[in-house]
Amino acid sequence: MSDGKRPTVSIIIKAFNEERHIAGAIESALAALAEIDGEVILADGASTDRTVEIAQRYPIKIVRLNDPTDRSCGAGAQLGFQYSRGEFLFLMDGDMRLQGDFLAAGIRCLRDHPTMGGVGGGMIYRDAGGLEYDQRMRRFDPDRGPGVVTRLGGCGLYRRAAVDAVRYSTDRNLHGAEELELAARLRASGWTLAKIERVAVEHYCGVDNSYALLLRRMKTRNACGPGEIIRASLGQPHFGLVVRDDRNSRFCVLVALWWAAIAAAAAVLRGFDAAVAITALFAFPFAVMSWRWRSLRHGLYSVMAWNTQALCFLPGFLRPRKPPAAWMASTVVKDPLGQSAQRGLNSALGLARISP
Length: 356
Fold this sequence. Notes:
The protein has 356 residues and is an alpha/beta fold. It has 2 domains: 9-208 and 323-348, Alpha-Beta Complex (Spore Coat Polysaccharide Biosynthesis Protein SpsA, Chain A), CATH 3.90.550; 247-318, no CATH class.
C-alpha cells in the first residue's frame, strides 16, 4: 500500500524455519487478497534456514526478530502486529495455507456483529501422523464447531479495534497457549469470539513421532506454556477465564497431586501395603486413559504428555517476563511493493485485485 490508505486486512504469517511450506503459505495469502484490499506480513523468528530467502521472492513485508532469545509462539503475532495497518488482522502460521473464501466471509461476519472481536473457521490437518494429532482430531472440543467459542485456535481473523483495546495481540512471553490468552483478554473486555461454517486453513503438520514432538516441546519451551499463561494472568481481569478454559494447566495440577499421593504413600506406608498402594496409584492414570482411548498406546502417550507439561510448569511460571506491549527489537528485511507491482503479481497468478 503506497498511498497511505489503511488496508482492509493485514495477513500476518508467523514463521520460524518453514522453508518447506512458506511459499505455499504466502501464495495462499496473496491469492486470498485477490478481491480484498490488504497486506501480507511475514513475521520471522530469526530463521536459520531459507525461509526469508524464499519469502523475498514475493511482494510482501518481511520483518525479523533481532534477538533469537525473543523467539516464542506469542512473539510472532505481536511482531507482525506492530508493523501492521489493517482494519482486520488474520493470524496464521508458516505451515498453513489460507482458504480463499474465508477472509471475505469472516470480514462480513465481523462487520455484521460489532461486538465480535474475532472469528475463526475450520482447520484441515495435512501430513498429521502419530498419536498427538490422532488424539487431537478425536478429542471432543466444544470450540471446534461453528458458533460462539472461547478461543479461535491456531489461526483467526481479529478486529483491530478489539486488539487495540487490549493493548497487544499475543503475549511475547508465552511459548504456548498464546491464542487462549488473547481470547481471554478479549472476552474479559466484553468482546465475543465465534467460528463460522467455513474452512479457514489447511495445516501441514509433518509430525510422525509424537514422543519426539514432546521432546521438541521441552526444548522450545512450548511445554512451559501452562505455567507462563498462569503467571501472565495473575491479578488480571481474565485470570478466571484462563483457569477455567486452560485444560493443560488443570492437568498440571492433577499430575502434581498424583505424584504427591505416590510420595505420601511411600512416606506413610511400609512393606507390602506400601508396594500395593504405590503400584495402584502409579497405574491408575495409565489404566483410566487406556480405557478412555480404548488403546494402551494412547493411554501411555496421554500420561506422558501430561507429565511433560507438569515438569515444565514451574520453570514457565518462574520465567522472567518482558512487557508484552513493548516494541520488539526487529529489522524490516523487505518493504511491500507498490500497488502496481502487486497488481502485476496478481496478474501473473491469474487474479484480479478489487478494492472494496
